[in-house]
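User: Fold this one for me? It's non-reducing end alpha-L-arabinofuranosidase.
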Amino acid sequence: MFASLNLDPARVVAPVSRRTFGSFVEHMGRCVYGGIYEPAHPAADADGFRQDVLALVREMGVSVVRYPGGNFVSGYRWEDGIGPVANRPVRRDLAWHSLETNEVGVDEFMRWAAKADVEVMYALNLGTRGVQEALDVHEYLNQPEGTALADRRGGKPYGIGMFCLGNEMDGPWQTGHKTAHEYGRLAAETARALRSAEPGLELIACGSSHSSMPTFGAWEATVLELAYDQVDAISAHAYYEPVDGDLPSFLASAVDMDHFITSVTATADSVGARLKSKKRINISFDEWNVWYLSEFQARPTPVDWAVAPRVIEDCYTVADAVVVGNLLISLLRHSDRVTAACQAQLVNVIAPIRAEPTGPAWRQTTFHPFALTSRLARGEVLDIGITSPTYDTERFGEVPVLDAVATHDPATGDLTVFAVNRHRTDPVELTVPLAAFGAGLEVVEAWTLHDPDLTATNTQLHPDRVAPRAAELALADGSARLRLPAVSWTAFRLA
Ligand code: AHR
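Assistant: Here's what I get for non-reducing end alpha-L-arabinofuranosidase.
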């Protein structure tokens, strides 16, 4: 099979937003306790944070981390997590039927974030709480000294710039679930109050938990009609898995993500048009990943109130990594509207990083496309043309075999292409004409993630079983040419 790309440095979608390479730390399972934080671990630092995990987070190139939930946040009392640790209460977490010790609260997390060199996106509880608590936590986090809560914090304000106005409020599973009208009013009033405290905040309203939610579209329209002037972005969440073993559809998951993004953009723009507003609402794709959700849903929810139980510690395959790489391609392609994105989650819980108690931390297969995309995507995202054969899928009909995106840095001349071959059996011979970039481009690096065994995984015993390998790339007659193996993700940089 043959495919080609049409690249032109003048056709720019938007600058690459570093916030595309976000992640998510929820007080769920072993993401916080036993993930980023394990004081008894030999690699723990004086604050109890695992330095082996921190090193992997930095290597992954994570830019922003959403915290503290997730479904957890809709029953969370942030003030339980401040002050002397010995005085902090143990609480029930209704979302995951576990116990929250509050040993890690917002001050500890901000310390971790500084060590990891990541920005924090803070999610507010609009499930069981409302405007006053949002103002209180904002005062604690961001107010300069001289008020009751700022003085309880002590030290400099954290200066958090992005706040999520609740989590998945459209979902009946959410503690304090609301109708779109109830939520839209609450989001608008919370945003109005927060803005009067700090006008420059970036505020994100809850969109749909998935594009297959029965209220998808209508939810966004109602919420934005009520909160358009008060918010900057609306969230999108999506998790993908091979449903009933349907690999061809699973490999095309990014088709669904593309459709999700264009649908939310169109809905937001239509509300903007009705309101005669010149303002544009962006998308915060603040939960996305591969998640074997139906396996999780098939098991009865344990009501055992354990501390940091093992929950959804999915072990990712080669095929999962290719899909993750493709989802990043989709997010980058929409950089004009997707201004932040968070892979969910960071450690242990459906995560690219796994960590065992008193044992090692390692990279799952999905770590690699994320780390390489974060490192290599620089400058501007290009609006590229793709010529590709197609294949049939059960869920999305006919889809292109090849998907790709490119970034170009006018300052350095670097051109990077990210490409996926979704075909189950056949390689793709890819041609990328380079004439538009002038003469003299050379190959700096080229990587492919591929394995004949699509089910191969990285484990504690074999942590590097799946890793990107150097790809062969030929530059001839003004074009780059390479072979993309069946079910593979590839990135190459020219300069
Ligand atoms: O990431 C796991 C869960 O998925 C989050 O808590 C929730 O927001 C979503 O449904």
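One thing worth pointing out: The first strand starts at residue 2 and ends at 6.
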